[in-house]
C-alpha cells in the first residue's frame, strides 16, 4: 500500500457507495502475466471480490487490450460486468452481443493479412496474437528480439496507417481511431461521483490522466488511481498513483479493506 492517506481514500469511497465505478485492466492487474497469453486467468479471489464490489459499491468495468470475447469467457461468473476489449473498440454489456466500434470495422481484413505476414516474417520466439481488429506481437520468451520486433512493427504501422502501442514485452498494431481506455473512462463515469482505475503498465498512465481530467471538471468527483506495480512496470506508474499493491494477488485484499468500510 503506497499513500499514507489510504484510509481517507477508502472512507471517502465508502461514503459514495452506489455512485462509483471500478475500472480494471486485465493482464498484470487482475491476472498474473504468463509466457503464453492464452493461459492467463484471474488471480485467486478476484471473481468473488469483484462480485461483492459490484453488488455493494458500484459498477465494475474491465477494460483491456484483449478481445471482448476472451474477457467475457474469463469473467463468465460475472455476467453483469461490462467488458471493453481492444482498448474500447469492442464492448459487451450484460446479456448483450459483442459490439464493434464502427471506426474499427474497415480494419478487419487489414488485420487478418497483417497477422499472416507477422507469422511469416518475424523470427522464431515471437508470438503473434490475432485479435480480429488488432494484432499483438509478443516477445516475452525472447526479450532479445525486442528491437527487431519493434522495427518491424514501426514499419508496418507507417505502411498501413495504424497506431502502434507498446506494453510489457508486447507491441500492438491497432486501427488509427481515437478510441482508447481514456474514452471508455469518460463515457462510463458520466453521472457518477467516484471512480477507481487499476492498472499495471505505462499504457495505463493515459487512463490515469483521463481520470485526472474527469476530477478536474468536477470538484466533488473522487478519482483514485491504483498501480498494481512491480519492478517490470516501473516507477512512473507508482509515482502517478494514489495507492499501490505489488501484484494481482494483492488486489482482493485492498478491495476487502474498502468493503469492510462500506455500510
Ligand atoms: Mg496490463
Descriptive overview:
The chain is of the alpha/beta class and 263 residues long. The chain has two domains: 6-100 and 179-261, HAD superfamily/HAD-like (Rossmann fold, 3-Layer(aba) Sandwich); 103-174, Alpha-Beta Plaits. 36% of the residues lie in helices and 21% in strands. The chain contains nine helices and twelve strands. It has helices spanning 6-15, 46-56, 68-74, 108-121, 146-160, 181-188, 205-217, 235-240, 251-261, and strands spanning 20-24, 58-63, 82-85, 90-92, 99-100, 127-130, 135-138, 163-167, 170-174, 194-199, 222-228, 243-245. An eight-stranded mixed beta sheet has the order 5-4-3-2-1-10-11-12, sandwiched between helices. A four-stranded antiparallel beta sheet has the order 6-7-9-8, covered by helices on one side. A hairpin with a 4-residue loop joins strand 6 and strand 7 (135-138). The longest helix has 15 residues, at 146-160. It is globular. The two termini are 23 Å apart. The model has no long low-confidence stretch (mean pLDDT 93). Residues 25, 27-29, 200-201 line the site of magnesium ion (MG).
Give the topology, please.
Layout: H1 6-15, E1 20-24, H2 46-56, E2 58-63, H3 68-74, E3 82-85, E4 90-92, E5 99-100, H4 108-121, E6 127-130, E7 135-138, H5 146-160, E8 163-167, E9 170-174, H6 181-188, E10 194-199, H7 205-217, E11 222-228, H8 235-240, E12 243-245, H9 251-261
The structure holds magnesium ion.
Magnesium ion is lined by residues 25, 27-29, 200-201.
Catalytic activity: alpha,alpha-trehalose 6-phosphate + H2O = alpha,alpha-trehalose + phosphate
Cofactor: Mg(2+)
Keywords: Hydrolase, Magnesium, Metal-binding
